[in-house]
C-alpha cells in the first residue's frame, strides 16, 4: 500500500507557506504553517491506520509479474528522466561493505542499496513493507513470507529461500555477532527461521509481537558466496567484504551496486540493470545511473560543499546549516530548494532525575511526581526551541515525538494534568506543597529541616543543543530557589559511567542528566526505555542480573505493562488505545521530563526530482551527529532522478 | 693602548641592568610587554570595565539579543546635527525569512546616552576576588560594588562587540575569559619549564645513575597517553566540581607531566656545558654544586629555556579549547578565549558570514601568543651574551 504522490502533494511546508504563516503570526513564523500541516496529517494518519491493517496489499496485487512496484513515494510528478548521477555528502565513508560487521545505522542503510531485505522500512508510510517478500501471512506464532520470484543476484544466480535462511543463520550466529543479532531473539530465546517451500520462508515467534515485521529487516546475502567463507570460520565472514574488496566481487541484488571506493574520497554506486523494481508505468528502476557519496572532513565542509554545488541532496541538521543553505538559495548562489520542518524527528530530548540517588533526600524528591512536574514547569521549551533551534523544533511533553504521526496523540496533552509547560509560579507552588516554604540566607528554598535542593545536571559536551538548554533551565531552577548547576562533560568517559555505575548499596551518583533518546516508528518508543528491565530505563535502573530496579514506582510498572501490551496486541485500534494511555501515563508522571524535538529538514538542488519532501515518520533513531538522518536517503534513491 | 687610566670612572653594570638595557633595545618585545600588561590589567579590572557580568544574558522576554550585532554608537544629535555625547538606540528583532536569521533594527524614538561610571550587576572588586569564595563567605568579608566604567539604561543594551547566542556581551566575556586564558596556561607552562630545567640540569650535571633515573622517568612519562590520562583524571573529580577548579588542577597536572622534552634538551646542553672552562674554573675555585648549576650552567641554557617557554604557552592556551570539549576545561556559563572560540567553531560557516564578532577571541589568542613570543625573543637576546647589541 503506497501513498500516491497526489495525496502527499501539498503537505510540505515550503518557504512561501512559511512567509504567509509569518504574516499571520508575527512571533516566529513557524506556528501558523505547522498547524495547517498537522490538521492534514491527522487526516492522513487516519488513512495510514487503515493502511496498516492490511499487510502489503501491493505485494499480492503484483503476484503475477513478481516485480516490485515502487511509485515515487515522495511527491514525484511522473516525468522521471532516465540516467544521470546524484551526489551526496557523508562525513566518513562507510567503513565496510560487510553486513555482519557494519556498526552504525546510517552505514547499514547505505548497504540496503545493494543487499535486499525481506521487508523494508518505508519512510513515506512509516512502516515496514514487503520488499523481497510479496506477502506475509500470520497464523498464531508462525509468520510466513512469500518470496518474490525472479530476483537475480548481480552474478546472475537467482535469489532463493535458501539464501534467506542462510542469511538468518549468519546474522543470528553469536560468534559472528551481527549488529542485527537482536532481531533473532525474543523473550530470551532464539526465533526460528525455516524454509517451507521454494517460495516461502517461515519465522516462528516465541511470543506474540505486533511489530514482528521489525524482526525481518536484516540484509540478505547470497548463500553461494558466503557459505564457502563461513566454512573457513567466523573470522573469514567478518573479514570479508571490507572496503579494499574489489567492488566487482561484491554480489548484491538491490537497486544499486558498488562500483568503486576511494578511501577518504568517495564511493560510487552504479545502477543494477537487473533490479526488480518498476515504477507505476512499468519502467525499470532505478532511474539514476550513478550515486556518488562524497566524503567530507566535517559537517562544515559538507555544508560548504553543498552550497558550492558539489552535492545534490543535503539534510541540514542544525539551525546554522539551515541558515547557510537558505542564504545560499536566497542570494542565488544555489539553484535549489530547502524544505524546513517537514516533520519532527523521532529523537526525544529529556532531562531526568535519578531515582536511585545516593542522597536519600534527593532520591525521595526525584521519586515524587510533584517535584518532576515542578521541573517540567521550569523548562522554558519555547525559548529553548527559539534560541537553540532557531524555531525549527517543537516543545515536547510526552514520550512520543509529534513526528511519529502514527501514534502521537496531541489531544492527550492537557495543561496541568498531562502537560506541564513553562510556569515558574506553578513550579514554586508545587515546591511549597513539597514543604519548601522558606528561603535560607543564600536565597535557596529549604524545608522545615533546613534542607535545600542542591542538584547538578550532566550535559554531553558534543550536544550543542543541550549546551543551550542547560543554562536556560538551570537559570530558571535557580530563580525559583533550587541550588542548581550543570557539568558539561564527555559522554563516553564521564557521563555514561556516571549514569550506569552503581555504588555497592544500589545507588548512583548523579542528580540530573540531559539525555536524548532515539525513536523507532513501531513500537513508538524504544522497547528498552520503558520496560522495567530496559537498558535505557535510566532514571531507575536495574542492576546486572536483576530483572527490574529495586524499588519501581507504581506508574513505572504500569508503563512497563502498557508497552508490553501494546507490542503483543495485533489490532491497530486497540494498540492505538493502549499507546494513548501509555502517552498519558508517561506525560503525567514524567519519568523523563520531556523537552523538545527537532525539525527534519531537507535541501536539494532543483535538478533532483522525486525527492523525499514528504517523509511522514522519520526513523529518527539516528543519533549520529555526523551523518544525521542521511540513512533515510536509501528510501528514495531508487525513484529519484536528476533533470538534464 | 689602554684607554683606561686610574681616573677613568668605571661604570660596572649589574647583570640585571645589562639585561634590562638589552631588552629595551628590542622594540617589538617592549611593545609586546606593554600589550600583555594591558591585557592583564583588563583581566584584573574586568568587572569594572565590562558593562555586563560574565553570564549576564539577554535572550528572552522584553530584551532579546541572541546574536545581536555590535551596538551602533551615535555621536551626532539627529535633530541639531551637532556633535553630542555618545548615545545608543534600543533595538528590536524580527525574523528575516530570506536568511532565517534574526534582524535587529534600531528604534530611533528614544536615545539612551552612554553613561560613564554607572551601575550594573554587583561584583566583588579586584583584588578581593582573588580570595576563594568559600573563604570570603566564611569570614563574612565579601564587599560588593556595582560601579561599572560605562553602560546604558535598559531596555537598551550596549554590546561593543556584539552578543553570543544567549545574548551575552562578547566584549565582557572576552575580558572575563582573559582571566582564565592568560593565567592558568602560563602557570602550567612555567611549572613545566621549571621542573624540566631543574631536572635536566641535575641529570646532565651529575650523570651516572641519577641521570639514568631521571631520563627513565621522562621516558615513562612520554609513554602515558595524554587523552586517557585526562579522562582518568576527570573520573577522579566529583561530578559537580566547578569547571574552573577542575581545569586548574588538570592543567597543573599537565604541566607536571609535560616537562620531559625540556629536561632532555637541557640535559644535552648541560652535558657539554659542564666541560666548559668557566665551569671548570668555578669548580676549581671551590664553588658548591648548587652554585655552579644555578649561577653558571643554567644561565647558559637561558636562551633555550625561554624559547621553549614561549613555545609552551601557546600550546597550553590552545589545549584549553580541547579540554573544554572533554568536559575538563572551562565550561559555560564561565568564559575563556578557548571556549568562546570553540563555540564560534560550532557555528561553522554562519559564524563567518553572519556573526564574525564571535571570532574575536581568536584575535586575542593570536595577539597574546605573538606577544609572548616576542617577549621571549627579547629576553633571549637580552640574556644571551653572544647576541648582545
Explain what this protein looks like in three dimensions.
The complex is a heterodimer of chains A (644) and B (389). Helix content of chain A is 31%, strand content 20%. By secondary structure, chain A is an alpha+beta fold. The longest helix of chain A is centred in the N-terminal third of the chain and has 24 residues, at 30-53. Chain A starts with a helix and ends with a strand. Chain B is of the alpha+beta class and 389 residues long. Chain B is 55% helix and 13% strand. Chain B contains 16 helices and 7 strands. In chain B, the strands form 3 sheets. Chain B has a 3-stranded antiparallel beta sheet, with no helix packed on it. Chain B has a two-stranded antiparallel ribbon with strand order 1-2. Chain B has a two-stranded antiparallel sheet with strand order 6-7. In chain B, a hairpin with a 2-residue loop joins strand 1 (59-60) and strand 2. In chain B, helix 6 packs antiparallel against helix 7 (208-223), helix 6 (184-206) runs parallel beside helix 9 and helix 7 (208-223) runs antiparallel to helix 10 (260-273). The model of chain B has no long low-confidence stretch (mean pLDDT 85). Chains A and B meet through helix 2, helix 9, helix 10, helix 13 and helix 15 of A and strand 1, helix 8 and helix 15 of B.
Amino acid at each position: 500500500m503506497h501513498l500516491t504522490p497526489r495525496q502527499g502533494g501539498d503537505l510540505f511546508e515550503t518557504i512561501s507557506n512559511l512567509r504567509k504563516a509569518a504574516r499571520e503570526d508575527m512571533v516566529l513564523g513557524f506556528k501558523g504553517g505547522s498547524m495547517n500541516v498537522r490538521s492534514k496529517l491527522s487526516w492522513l494518519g487516519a488513512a495510514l491506520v487503515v493502511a496498516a491493517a492490511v499487510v502489503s496489499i501491493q505485494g499480492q496485487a503484483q503476484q503475477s509479474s513478481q516485480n516490485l512496484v515502487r511509485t515515487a513515494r515522495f511527491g514525484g510528478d511522473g516525468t522521471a528522466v532516465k540516467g544521470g548521477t546524484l551526489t551526496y555528502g557523508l562525513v566518513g565513508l562507510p567503513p565496510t561493505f560487510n553486513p555482519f560487521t557494519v556498526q552504525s545505522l546510517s552505514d547499514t542503510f547505505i548497504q540496503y542499496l545493494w543487499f535486499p531485505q525481506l521487508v523494508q522500512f518505508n519512510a513515506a508510510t512509516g512502516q515496514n513493507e514487503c520488499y523481497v517478500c510479496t506477502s506475509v501471512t500470520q497464523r498464531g506464532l508462525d509468520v510466513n513470507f512469500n518470496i518474490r520470484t525472479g530476483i537475480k543476484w548481480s552474478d546472475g544466480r537467482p535469489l532463493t529461500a535458501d539464501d534467506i535462511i542462510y542469511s538468518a543463520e549468519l546474522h543470528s550466529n553469536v560468534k559472528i555477532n551481527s549488529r542485527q543479532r537482536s532481531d533473532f531473539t525474543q523473550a530470551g530465546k532464539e526465533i526460528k527461521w525455516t524454509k517451507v517451500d521454494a517460495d516461502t520462508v517461515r519465522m516462528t515467534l516465541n511470543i506474540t509481537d505486533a511489530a514482528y515485521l521489525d524482526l525481518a529487516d536484516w540484509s540478505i546475502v547470497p548463500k553461494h558466496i558466503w557459505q564457502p567463507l563461513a566454512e573457513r570460520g567466523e573470522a573469514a565472514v567478518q573479514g570479508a567484504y571490507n572496503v579494499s574488496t574489489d567492488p566487482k566481487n561484491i554480489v548484491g541484488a538491490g537497486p544499486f551496486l558498488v562500483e568503486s571506493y576511494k578511501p577518504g574520497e568517495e564511493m560510487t554506486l552504479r545502477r543494477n540493470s537487473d533490479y526488480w523494481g518498476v515504477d507505476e508505468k512499468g519502467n525499470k528502476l532505478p532511474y539514476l545511473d550513478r550515486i556518488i557519496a562524497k566524503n567530507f572532513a566535517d559537517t562544515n565542509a559538507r555544508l560548504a560543499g553543498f552550497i558550492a554545488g558539489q552535492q545534490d541532496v543535503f539534510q541540514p541538521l542544525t539551525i546554522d546549516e539551515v541558515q547557510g543553505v537558505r542564504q545560499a538559495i536566497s542570494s542565488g548562489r544555489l539553484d535549489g530548494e530547502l524544505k524546513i520542518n517537514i516533520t519532527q524527528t523521532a529523537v526525544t530530548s529529556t532531562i531526568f532525575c535519578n531515582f536511585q540517588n545516593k542522597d536519600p533526600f534527593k532520591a525521595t524528591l526525584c521519586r515524587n511526581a510533584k517535584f518532576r512536574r515542578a521541573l517540567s514547569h521550569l523548562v522554558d521549551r519555547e525559548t529553548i526551541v527559539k534560541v537553540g533551534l532557531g524555531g525549527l523544533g517543537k516543545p515536547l511533553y510526552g514520550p512520543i515525538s509529534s513526528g511519529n504521526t502514527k501514534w502521537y496523540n496531541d489531544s492527550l496533552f492537557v495543561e496541568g494534568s498531562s502537560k506541564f509547560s513553562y510556569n515558574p509560579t506553578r513550579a514554586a507552588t508545587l515546591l511549597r506543597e513539597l514543604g519548601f516554604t522558606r528561603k535560607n540566607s543564600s536565597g535557596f528554598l529549604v524545608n522545615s529541616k533546613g534542607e535545600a535542593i542542591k542538584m547538578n545536571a550532566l550535559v554531553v559536551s558534543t550536544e550543542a543543543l543541550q549546551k543551550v538548554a542547560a543554562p536556560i533551565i538551570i537559570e530558571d531552577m535557580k530563580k525559583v530557589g533550587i541550588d542548581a548547576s550543570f557539568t558539561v562533560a564527555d559522554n563516553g568517559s564521564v557521563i555514561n559511567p556516571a549514569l550506569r555505575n552503581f555504588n555497592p548499596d544500589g545507588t548512583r551518583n548523579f542528580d540530573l542528566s540531559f539525555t536524548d533518546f532515539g525513536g523507532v516508528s513501531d513500537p513508538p518508543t524504544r522497547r528498552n526505555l520503558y520496560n522495567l528491565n530496559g537498558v535505557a530505563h535510566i532514571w531507575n535502573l536495574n542492576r546486572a542480573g536483576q530483572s527490574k530496579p529495586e524499588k519501581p514506582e507504581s506508574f513505572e510498572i504500569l508503563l512497563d505493562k502498557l508497552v508490553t501490551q501494546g507490542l503483543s496486541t495485533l489490532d491497530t485500534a486497540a494498540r492505538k488505545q493502549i499507546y494513548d494511555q501509555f502517552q498519558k501515563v508517561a506525560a503525567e508522571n514524567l519519568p523523563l521530563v520531556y523537552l523538545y524535538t527537532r525539525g527534519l529538514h531537507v535541501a536539494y538542488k532543483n535538478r533532483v526530482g522525486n525527492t523525499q519532501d514528504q517523509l511522514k515518520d522519520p526513523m529518527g533513531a539516528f543519533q549520529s551527529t555526523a551523518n544525521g538522518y542521511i540513512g533515510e536517503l536509501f528510501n528514495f534513491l531508487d525513484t529519484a532522478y536528476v533533470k538534464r | 693602548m689602554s684607554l683606561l687610566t686610574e681616573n677613568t670612572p668605571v661604570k660596572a653594570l649589574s647583570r640585571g641592568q645589562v639585561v634590562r638595557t638589552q631588552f629595551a633595545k628590542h622594540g617589538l618585545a617592549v611593545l609586546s610587554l606593554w600589550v600583555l600588561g594591558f591585557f592583564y590589567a583588563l583581566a584584573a579590572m574586568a568587572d569594572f570595565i565590562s558593562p555586563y557580568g560574565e553570564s549576564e544574558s539577554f535572550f528572552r522576554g522584553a530584551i532579546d539579543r541572541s546574536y545581536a550585532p555590535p551596538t551602533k554608537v551615535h555621536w551626532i544629535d539627529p535633530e541639531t546635527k551637532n556633535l553630542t555625547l555618545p548615545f545608543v538606540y534600543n533595538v528590536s528583532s524580527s525574523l528575516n525569512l530570506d536568511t532565517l536569521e534574526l534582524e535587529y533594527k534600531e528604534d530611533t524614538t528614544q536615545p539612551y546616552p552612554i553613561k560613564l561610571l554607572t551601575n550594573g550587576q554587583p561584583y566583588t572588586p579586584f583584588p578581593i576576588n582573588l580570595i576563594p569564595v568559600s573563604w570570603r563567605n566564611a569570614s563574612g568579608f565579601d564587599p560588593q560594588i556595582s560601579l561599572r566604567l560605562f553602560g546604558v539604561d535598559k531596555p537598551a543594551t550596549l554590546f561593543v562587540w556584539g552578543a553570543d547566542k544567549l545574548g551575552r556581551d562578547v566584549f565582557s566575556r572576552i575580558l572575563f575569559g582573559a582571566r582564565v586564558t592568560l593565567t592558568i596556561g602560563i602557570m602550567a607552562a612555567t611549572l613545566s619549564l621549571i621542573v624540566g630545567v631543574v631536572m635536566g640540569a641535575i641529570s646532565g650535571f651529575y650523570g651516572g645513575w641519577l641521570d639514568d633515573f631521571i631520563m627513565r622517568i621522562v621516558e615513562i612519562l612520554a609513554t602515558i597517553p595524554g587523552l586517557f590520562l585526562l579522562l582518568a583524571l576527570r573520573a577522579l573529580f566529583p561530578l559537580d566540581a566547578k569547571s574552573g577548579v577542575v581545569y586548574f588542577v588538570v592543567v597543573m597536572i599537565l604541566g607536571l607531566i609535560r616537562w620531559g622534552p625540556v629536561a632532555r634538551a637541557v640535559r644535552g646542553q648541560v652535558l657539554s656545558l659542564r666541560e666548559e672552562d668557566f665551569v671548570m674554573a668555578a669548580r676549581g675555585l671551590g664553588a658548591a654544586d648548587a652554585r655552579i648549576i644555578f649561577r653558571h650552567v643554567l644561565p647558559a641554557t637561558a636562551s633555550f629555556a625561554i624559547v621553549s617557554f614561549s613555545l609552551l604557552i601557546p600550546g597550553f592556551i590552545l589545549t584549553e579549547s580541547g579540554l573544554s570539549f572533554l568536559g575538563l576545561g572551562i565550561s559555560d556559563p564561565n568564559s575563556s578565549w578557548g571556549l568562546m572560540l570553540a563555540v564560534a567553531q560550532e557555528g561553522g560557516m554562519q559564524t563567518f558570514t553572519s556573526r564574525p564578532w564571535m571570532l574575536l577571541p581568536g584575535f586575542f589568542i593570536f595577539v597574546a601568543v605573538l606577544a609572548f613570543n616576542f617577549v621571549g625573543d627579547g629576553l633571549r637576546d637580552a640574556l644571551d651574551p653572544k647576541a648582545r647589541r
